[in-house]
Amino acid sequence: MVHKRVHRKRDGRELLLYSWAPLEDPPLPEPEEAPAPSSHLRYHPLRRAWAVYTPHRQGRTFLPPEEHCPLCPSRPGGFPTEIPFPRFQVAVFQNRFPAFVETPPAPPSLPVPTAPAWGRCEVVVYTPRHTGSLATLSHEERLLLLWALRDRYQALYALEGVRFVMPFENRGEAIGVTLHHPHGQIYAYPFVPPLLEREAEAFREGPVLLELLPHLGPYAVDREGGFLAFVPPFAHFPYEVWVVPEAFHPGLWTLSEGEMEALARLLGRTVARLDALFGEPMPYVMLFHAAPKGEEAHFHFHVEFLPVLRDKGRRKYLAGTELGAGAFTVDVLPEEAARRLRETGLGPF
Amino acid sequence: MVHKRVHRKRDGRELLLYSWAPLEDPPLPEPEEAPAPSSHLRYHPLRRAWAVYTPHRQGRTFLPPEEHCPLCPSRPGGFPTEIPFPRFQVAVFQNRFPAFVETPPAPPSLPVPTAPAWGRCEVVVYTPRHTGSLATLSHEERLLLLWALRDRYQALYALEGVRFVMPFENRGEAIGVTLHHPHGQIYAYPFVPPLLEREAEAFREGPVLLELLPHLGPYAVDREGGFLAFVPPFAHFPYEVWVVPEAFHPGLWTLSEGEMEALARLLGRTVARLDALFGEPMPYVMLFHAAPKGEEAHFHFHVEFLPVLRDKGRRKYLAGTELGAGAFTVDVLPEEAARRLRETGLGPF
């Protein structure tokens, strides 16, 4: 059974500790209060999208030494971390340098539309251990992480102004990660972001993913208890992998206990495969795409891994055509990527 | 007067030499034929966008030593470059590793829609000198470059299947540039790419940029002969700069001779400013956004510089929220970026 302990940090931010057994340690001293967030939204009239302006984030913690890792457990008399407890399993807390906040300042008046950066940003610490990854967590740790995300989905979608909730993980310095401790993030957006608008439109027109699944033979990479891992034939990134339930689910919150177990195993094996490919941890962005609010009837839940290496030590750059036109060029054929990922020799294929 | 010499390379690719005085040197030996392009298009059913799959590009030339630079002039008895002439000013040739080609192979039949990668990709060599940038070219060189681009716009939009033509420059290893010689590229797309669809939609609803221009006081960076350089209040990249004509123009091809001169000067000064900011060449993507075919009545021509440094030696990464949701986070306020760029002390502001 998952236990959840709620702690209010001294600066008012919420810290949630998820564990398989109750944790009752008294809290240790906490770090200094965070700078006040100064975010607001601005509308790009040509890209037709909201962006969030966060000048206070320029000063965020950047690759601290291990002894000053803010995501490790605190020790009595030691460096005060974000988690003022000597033990935890999975910890979730409100980001110290958030893009979205529940009490945003009034936005400035500008020549383009602006809005308060209302919403919520959370950090999800996967494990008390400073090193590791989704691939090296134990099954119980990964499963607890998924239950924690499920709890956060429910809590954040219960907030009235939230339109879309996205757990994600940026992994590796090549993607700009500033803290090495295994962790992800959750953004609760006050708008449906552009790529999700597109996906929701597609799902309203038809069950795109469910119709595709039977035709993915050469693209399949791995399979487990009702989930398929595959390289999409339309991948935009080399070695991109999607993990998709084979029955309809709008989000993590509708999965059975057995499906939660299967997803935990398959996510772990997928990261292990990506790491085996070039014999080094693969830098990637991992995204949970669940239904935006109001799209639960059609939107098919999926997890996307977007790795940024196109070969060992050689990264894929987004440049002129991607950044300036939104048209991707892809050097690695998805069917070739799938074959190489299958051949890493983990799992049933 | 601009002179244009057309040379057909031995593998059939076209090479165009633009100069202020006729160039009549006989051609020198050429390099081996390029591998046959194997591109095709695939449709991403959830992002609702075409991408181009180019496995032959994995083997493209990667940071060759200067003596093997394919963009330098050839020397008799020397390394055969892409330009088999001892002298040139601006050279344009069909890319040896193109994404789009005029005779694409038939696309494979896949579980998602596919199409031939019809179109054209060109390389634009700014100068015969191996080092330099838009900032260090002479005014005459920059002006010749603009006239060459204007000629290419007209030639490429004259091709029936072309829907959008985009000259662009990827600059700096931080953006993945594989050749240092100052150069840009031109893509002639067989579809209107997603970001341009959005821009065209916006311009069909109203003259967004023309209405904005009078309100850009704190955002202005520089000005010259009917063009304004400014940091958009809705910039997605730190130190992003747009160069925009103050009267309506759908593309380079409608500018007066005086406006061509002004644009040449302002582009040069803009790059000089970006380079002065951190005292090192700024890595960026520069885009020419002219009207897609059929949008000439409303689409307002503009040049975008998207620099990827958010501070000296510290890059802006696109990660979870940008790549996975299309929602940008911006650390540097545009009005602060504009102030810093004005204070570099080049030009009238």
From TrEMBL, chains A, B:
<feature type="domain" description="Galactose-1-phosphate uridyl transferase N-terminal">
    <location>
        <begin position="39"/>
        <end position="193"/>
    </location>
</feature>
<dbReference type="GO" id="GO:0005737">
    <property type="term" value="C:cytoplasm"/>
</dbReference>
<dbReference type="InterPro" id="IPR001937">
    <property type="entry name" value="GalP_UDPtransf1"/>
</dbReference>
<feature type="domain" description="Galactose-1-phosphate uridyl transferase C-terminal">
    <location>
        <begin position="226"/>
        <end position="343"/>
    </location>
</feature>
<comment type="pathway">
    <text>Carbohydrate metabolism; galactose metabolism.</text>
</comment>
<keyword id="KW-0808">Transferase</keyword>
<dbReference type="InterPro" id="IPR005849">
    <property type="entry name" value="GalP_Utransf_N"/>
</dbReference>
<feature type="binding site">
    <location>
        <position position="181"/>
    </location>
    <ligand>
        <name>Zn(2+)</name>
    </ligand>
</feature>
<dbReference type="InterPro" id="IPR005850">
    <property type="entry name" value="GalP_Utransf_C"/>
</dbReference>
<dbReference type="InterPro" id="IPR019779">
    <property type="entry name" value="GalP_UDPtransf1_His-AS"/>
</dbReference>
<keyword id="KW-0479">Metal-binding</keyword>
<dbReference type="InterPro" id="IPR036265">
    <property type="entry name" value="HIT-like_sf"/>
</dbReference>
<keyword id="KW-0548">Nucleotidyltransferase</keyword>
<feature type="active site" description="Tele-UMP-histidine intermediate">
    <location>
        <position position="183"/>
    </location>
</feature>
<keyword id="KW-0119">Carbohydrate metabolism</keyword>
<keyword id="KW-0299">Galactose metabolism</keyword>
<protein>
    <recommendedName>
        <fullName>Galactose-1-phosphate uridylyltransferase</fullName>
        <ecNumber>2.7.7.12</ecNumber>
    </recommendedName>
</protein>
<keyword id="KW-0862">Zinc</keyword>
<comment type="similarity">
    <text>Belongs to the galactose-1-phosphate uridylyltransferase type 1 family.</text>
</comment>
<dbReference type="Pfam" id="PF02744">
    <property type="entry name" value="GalP_UDP_tr_C"/>
</dbReference>
<feature type="binding site">
    <location>
        <position position="72"/>
    </location>
    <ligand>
        <name>Zn(2+)</name>
    </ligand>
</feature>
<dbReference type="GO" id="GO:0008270">
    <property type="term" value="F:zinc ion binding"/>
</dbReference>
<dbReference type="GO" id="GO:0033499">
    <property type="term" value="P:galactose catabolic process via UDP-galactose, Leloir pathway"/>
</dbReference>
<dbReference type="Pfam" id="PF01087">
    <property type="entry name" value="GalP_UDP_transf"/>
</dbReference>
<feature type="binding site">
    <location>
        <position position="69"/>
    </location>
    <ligand>
        <name>Zn(2+)</name>
    </ligand>
</feature>
<feature type="binding site">
    <location>
        <position position="130"/>
    </location>
    <ligand>
        <name>Zn(2+)</name>
    </ligand>
</feature>
<dbReference type="GO" id="GO:0008108">
    <property type="term" value="F:UDP-glucose:hexose-1-phosphate uridylyltransferase activity"/>
</dbReference>
